[in-house]
Each structure stands twice: as structure tokens, then as C-alpha cells.
Amino acid sequence: MTTTLKSKLHDDLNSAIKARDELRSSTLRLTLAAITKEEVAGKEKRELSDDEVLKVIAKEAKKRREAAEAFAQGGRPESAEREKAEGVILDDYLPRQLSDEELAGIVAAAVEEAKAAGAEGPRAMGAVMKIVNPKVAGLAEGGRVAAAVKQRLQG
Questions:
Q1: Residue 1: what pLDDT?
Q2: Can you tell me whether residue 32 is helix, strand or coil?
């Protein structure tokens, strides 16, 4: 029997509560609440697929990174550290992110493909992004992908 990602989160939450791991249990509670909120959004309640759950977890992890940055800039290092720690916990549930070299390789191939289709220069950004996005979905953050594409088109 296969276990869903959501049930794995529930099991890990129960383990964290039993181990009295406050950071892990609160992080997983917030994530499960975000998943439930997504399930009841819209006209009728539905069960999220593992891919949809992964998207929610990725969104939550991104929130943690942005909050950590904001706290660090605001002079609240203890809050920034907590947000970073929560982000690390969530990263355990996400697929491994592409390295800069792997991302550059995918972007280079997409730029060549776009050039073959007649799109060149900085205006080709949209065409290249359409090629790259399906290949890196969930494996690299959108801002990182866009920066790599922009750099490749300019250089």
C-alpha cells in the first residue's frame, strides 16, 4: 500500500509531538493547515494529489525563506533563525533542487531551441521560459530560473 505525502506529514507530526519537538511539530501543523485550507478552497472540498501537496509545501518553504530575509533585514536574528529552521524541515519533503550547473544546462538547451524557432535576444525571454518551466517544475524556484534565462540571453 502506498502512503500519500499528506499521511506521511501526519505520521511525522505525531512522531514530533511524541518526541516533544516543538519546532518540527509547529512547522508540520502550519503546513497541514495550509494543505487543508487548499483542500476546502473553491466550491467543494477535495483531496489534494501528492503533486498538489508538494506545491503547497514549496509555497510554505518559500514563505519561510522570505520571512527569514525580512527578519534578518529588520534586525531580528532569532526570528530569522527560526524561519530558516522551519524552511529546512520543509525542504526534507521537497524534491532535490537543481544545482546551478544543471539549471544552466537546461537553460542553454532551451535558448538554442528558441533560437531555432526564430526567437533571439532579450525579447526571447517568454519563449525560453515556456520551454524551461515544464522541465524544471518543482526543481528550481521561478526567480532563480528567470535570472538564469535572463543572464543567458544577455551573455
A1: 36
A2: helix
Distance of alpha carbon 21 from alpha carbon 66, whole angstroms: 24
Which amino acid is located at 88 in the chain?
V
Q: How far apart are CA 5 and CA 7, in angstroms?
A: 5
Is-contact 23 72, C-beta < 8 A? Answer: no
pTM listed for this prediction? 0.74
CA distance 24 to 22: 6
Query: Longest C-alpha distance within the chain, in Å?
Result: 59
Q: Are 136 and 106 in contact (CB under 8 A)?
A: yes
Burial 28-53 (b: 16+ CB within 10 A, else e): beebbebbeebbeeeeeeeebeeebb
Which residue in 91, 108, 97 sits closest to 27, CA to CA? 91
Q: What's the rounded Cα separation, in Å, for the pair 52 and 36? A: 12
Residue-wise pLDDT tens digits, 38-80: 989 888 888 888 888 888 888 898 899 999 999 999 999 999 9
